[in-house]
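hey
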C-alpha cells in the first residue's frame, strides 16, 4: 500500500506542471549520452512520449558529431578539423546525410514508435524547413589575428519555415529533425544542432528549450558538480562568460539559449542526459536537475 500511495503522491505533485504545460510545445535537443548509448536513447524516447501523452507537444532535434566521425573513419576518410570545426566537403556531406538522416534520425523515430509515440523523421530540407546559407567562420590564428576560414558545406540558418512542424504537432505526431539545411541553390549544408533547436524553438513559440548534454549544467567549479548554478538570468550571462564560469563549448549552448529566449521561448535548460529521466525531473519538479536560463 505504501508504494501505491507514493505513486499517487508523485502524480499529484506533477499535476501543477501537467496543467501549466498542457498543449505547450517543448523543444528537446538530443545530444551526448542520450545519442551514443542505446539504453539512454530508448529511455529518453520513452520520456518524450510520456510528455506527449500528458498533453504536451514535444519536438525533437538531434546532433550526431561523434557518429559522423566514426563513420568517416570506417569509410576510410580522415575527418579534418580547424580549431575544432569540421571541414565538410562533398564526400563528407554525403556521410553527414547518411548518418544524421539515415541512421540516427530513424533510430530515434523507431524508439518513439516503440513506445506508442507517433514519431516522424524530417531533415531541414523537407518542405524547406530550414533554409540556410554557407557560413564563413572567424577564428584566431597563431599570431592572435582574426581570420575567416572556409569550412566547405557548413551553413547557418537564414530562415525557418515551421508549417510542416505545426501540421505534425497539431495532429499528435512528434517531429524529429536532423540538423541539415538547404541553400537557395539546392545545396545541402551541415548545421549546428544546438543552433537549429534554438532557432526552431523560437519559430514555433515553444514554452521550453531543453538541451541534453554530458555535463550537469553550468558549474562554478567544473570539477565539482555540487557547484551547479540552477538558474541564470540572461543579463547575467556576459559576466559569467567574462569570469570564465561559462567557457569553451558551453558558450555557444548558452548563447543559443539566450537567443531562443529573446525570440519568445519562456525558458531554456541545459541538462545532463546521463542522469536517468533528467527530462522528466526538469519538467515535473520545482528544483529541476540542470541549469535554467530565463529572462527574469
Amino acid at each position: 500500500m505504501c508504494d501505491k500511495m507514493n505513486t499517487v503522491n508523485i502524480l499529484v505533485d506533477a499535476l501543477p506542471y501537467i496543467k501549466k504545460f498542457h498543449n505547450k510545445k517543448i523543444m528537446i535537443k538530443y545530444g551526448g549520452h542520450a545519442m551514443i548509448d542505446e539504453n539512454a536513447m530508448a529511455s529518453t524516447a520513452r520520456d518524450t512520449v510520456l510528455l506527449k501523452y500528458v498533453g504536451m507537444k514535444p519536438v525533437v532535434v538531434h546532433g550526431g558529431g561523434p557518429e559522423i566521425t566514426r563513420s568517416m573513419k570506417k569509410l576510410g576518410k580522415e575527418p579534418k578539423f580547424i580549431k575544432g570545426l569540421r571541414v565538410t566537403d562533398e564526400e563528407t556531406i554525403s556521410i553527414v546525410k547518411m548518418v544524421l538522416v539515415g541512421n540516427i534520425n530513424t533510430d530515434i523515430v523507431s524508439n518513439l514508435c516503440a513506445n506508442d509515440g507517433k514519431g516522424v523523421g524530417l531533415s531541414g530540407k523537407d518542405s524547406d524547413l530550414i533554409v540556410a546559407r554557407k557560413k564563413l567562420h572567424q577564428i584566431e590564428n597563431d599570431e592572435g589575428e582574426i581570420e575567416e576560414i572556409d569550412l566547405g558545406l557548413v551553413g547557418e540558418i537564414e530562415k525557418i519555415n515551421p508549417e510542416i512542424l505545426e501540421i505534425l504537432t497539431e495532429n499528435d505526431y512528434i517531429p524529429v529533425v536532423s540538423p541539415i539545411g538547404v541553400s537557395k541553390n539546392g545545396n545541402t549544408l551541415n548545421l549546428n544542432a544546438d543552433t537549429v533547436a534554438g532557432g526552431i524553438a523560437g519559430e514555433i513559440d515553444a514554452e521550453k528549450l531543453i538541451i541534453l548534454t554530458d555535463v550537469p549544467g553550468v558549474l562554478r567549479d567544473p570539477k565539482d558538480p555540487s557547484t551547479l548554478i540552477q538558474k541564470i538570468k540572461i543579463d547575467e550571462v556576459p559576466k559569467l562568460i567574462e569570469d570564465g564560469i561559462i567557457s569553451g563549448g558551453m558558450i555557444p549552448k548558452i548563447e543559443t539559449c539566450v537567443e531562443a529566449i529573446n525570440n519568445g521561448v519562456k525558458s531554456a535548460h541545459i541538462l545532463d542526459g546521463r542522469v536517468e529521466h533528467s527530462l522528466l525531473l526538469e519538467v515535473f519538479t520545482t528544483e529541476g536537475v540542470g541549469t535554467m536560463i530565463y529572462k527574469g
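Residues 90-114 form the longest helix (25 residues). The longest strand covers residues 146-160.
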